[in-house]
């Protein structure tokens, strides 16, 4: 058969009728193999530049912040963020920075102001975050710039445009130990400028370098405030101080209220803007904050905020911070209504027969226990009875007490039966029978001491059974007789007990 010859008409599409032109073509379900010419790794590096690995082109010297010198030089340093705020710089230029994060980075030797410029990278920062910085230049801070008071050097980095600098967050490698020592702190010595929260709110905020050590009590939710501006206050030394928050007209500003406390008072700490992400990493009754130069404004209740000159050390490595955390943990636990006296912990006879008898004050005990909490102390106190509750507890049927099955049990009798397990219980004298005891340096409130049976008998002149069987007239006389007397008290302290133990009592 002869081969078929192709005609010229076969090279042209046949003419489609007008009725078929109005019909929609059938959808093609076959996937297209065409691409834009970029690999998946190139697209990921362009969309998420922070994930792109940085390779240094020269040698960077690891340096402490204290050893930095203004001028050119490739240095690498590590520290924790103690303050930061955001400044937006909107621009239509494609390669221009979209904003700047002004950070205050601190290590164990000093602080450095860092201007971190960004275009596409979203830096998720919070207070106390451990970061590493590589920079080719360090400059002297300008006198009019918004830098922290103790910071004299500043560096400006733009990692997305400049390959000679880089910024890294050390979240996975952070063990919670590095760069946590407060500036100027030495073991066994009081940190300069440190005061209680109560002293700060009652006038201590006027000091130039005031510091407070507080624990996080509770954390509120994020709130959006419209047409609000950062609170300001007038300071005689520094002029007008702006609190760190960026708000514009018809824009929303976020804030978070954090309730804080120490052993003297409580207050509210307000965080604005990007600082609102910090409390997400904090734990209530555990996280300790050392705040240097906080702002204070009174709105019926003391309220604190962060100014440009504020430092916030999260969980600092210092003795007072450990003590405050233990104090906060004890508050979360329900105390035993009448903690048993620890037998065999203190050698009472040896202490009584010792030729060396040391007389302490309440302030001395507080100082020694904070400095060396693991040590065991036995000594003497000279206290004055300011308050007694013998008659009040008798009327309430609460002269003696104990605890069983997690339920406090009170009675004006030495023995009683538990209503839960029907077990026969022996009650001890209620420690709240003695109210306030004072000396020339401080006082101890009701229920904060653990009395031995011998100490109760020496103080009241009768044991628990005789006290329970006493008449109302005798109890009134006993209360009036013991009020405002001077007591020579032999005490003992042990970290395992956690309270002062009264071993013996002598009425002066």
Automatic annotation (TrEMBL):
GO molecular function, one term: single-stranded DNA 3'-5' DNA exonuclease activity
Feature: compositional bias, Polar residues: 1-12, 31-40
InterPro entries: MEIOB, NA-bd_OB-fold
GO BP annotations, alphabetical order: resolution of meiotic recombination intermediates
Annotated region (Disordered), positions in chain: 1-40
Source taxon at top rank: Eukaryota
PANTHER family hit by this protein: CELL DIVISION CONTROL PROTEIN 24 OB DOMAIN-CONTAINING PROTEIN-RELATED
Name of the molecule in the record: Uncharacterized protein
